[in-house]
Amino acid sequence: MKRIFALIAILLAAAPAFASEGPGEAAGFIGIPTLVWKILNFIVYFGLLVYLLRKPLANVFGSRREGIARALSEARQQQDEALRMKAEMNARVASLEREIVELKERMTREGERERAALVSQGAAEAERASSRLGVEADRRLAAARVSLAREAADVAAELAWDLLKREVTPEDRERIFAATLTRLEGSAR
User: Fold this and answer.
1) Is the pTM value of this prediction over 0.70?
2) Structural domain count, the chain
3) Residue range of the domain that includes 159
C-alpha cells in the first residue's frame, strides 16, 4: 500500500515537469497523451481526498446531526411543557370561575335567607305596632334591604379577594395579566 502511494506521489510530482512541454506536442509521458495524465491526476487527487477526508467529515456531520436531534428533542420537550402549563392554567382559571359562580350563588342564597328573616321580623314588628309605626316600619325595611345588599356585596368582595390572594400566585397574576392584555389587544384591532 505504501508503495502504491509512493508511486502515485512520484507520478504526481513528475506531472508538472511533463506538463511543461510546448504547445502542439501531444506525445505525453510514457507514450500516454497528456489529457489522459490530467484525467488520471484528477481521479487520483480526488480519490485521495475522499479517502483522507471521509472519516473526519463523517464525524463532523454525525456530531452535527446529533446536535440538531438534541436541539429538536429539547424544543419538543419545551413545547410539551408549555402546552401542559397552558392546560393547567386554563383548568385553574375555569376552577376560579366556577368558585366565583358558586360564591355568588351562595351569597345570593344567604342574602335571600337573611332577607326572609328580616322580612318576617319586620312583619312581626309591623303587626304589633302597625297603628303607630306603619311608616317607620316601611322605612326601616327599605334601609335594611339596602344595608343587606351592601353587606352582601362587601362580604362577596372580601371572600373573592381572599380566595384570589390565597389561590393566585404572582406568576399566575402575571400570566392572567398577559393573557388579558393580549385579549384586549386582539379585541382592539
Assistant:
1) no
2) 1
3) 2-188
CB atoms within 10 A of CB 29: 16
- Collect all residues with Cβ–Cβ distance below 8 Å to 25 and sequence separation of at least 6: none
What span, in angstroms and rounded, lies between the C-alpha atoms of 147 and 21? 117
Q: Could you report the average pLDDT of every consecutive run of 10 residues in the chain (189 residues)?
A: 64 60 60 87 92 90 94 93 91 89 89 85 76 73 86 84 78 84 81
